[in-house]
Design a protein that fits this description.
By secondary structure, the protein is an all-alpha fold. It is about 80% helix and about 0% strand. The protein is flat.
Length: about 120
């Protein structure tokens, strides 16, 4: 139990140190960040303008679905073509396909871990 208390005290000390650092440097960082990216800030920065931009983003993404849908089917046709002509594949193409499959599986695993709240066993402590 003493070890747990020691760890708690260490974490509290680190949290206090991080808070002090953020309080000391946070405003300067914010000012520098906003100055660097001022071309992206809409004037006036009001709630109404933010809601309008949010709607524009939503409907713009919605409008992009047909193009992405067509691109998906073109890619699927390419994969079908590769599968039909698999006799003509060389080692490089097979390696790229294997790496792609491994990457998809890895992203699936990462998504599962994130979905469980960054736990590996599925149980929360």
């Amino acid at each position: 139990m003493a070890a747990l208390g020691s760890k708690l005290a260490q974490m509290q000390a680190k949290a206090c140190e991080a808070t002090r650092y953020a309080a000391k440097h946070g405003c300067a960082y914010h000012r520098a960040l906003m100055e660097k990216n001022k071309q992206h800030v809409v004037d006036p920065p009001t709630v109404e303008r933010c809601q309008e931009l949010s709607k524009q983003l939503f409907y713009t993404r919605l409008a992009s679905i047909p193009g992405r849908y067509e691109a998906f089917w073109k890619e699927l046709d390419q994969v079908k073509n590769l599968w039909e002509n698999r006799k003509d594949l060389n080692v490089e193409h097979a390696g790229v396909a294997a790496l792609f499959g491994i990457e998809l599986y890895a992203w699936f695993c990462v998504g599962e871990i994130v979905g469980r709240g960054f736990t590996f066993t599925g149980y929360h402590v």
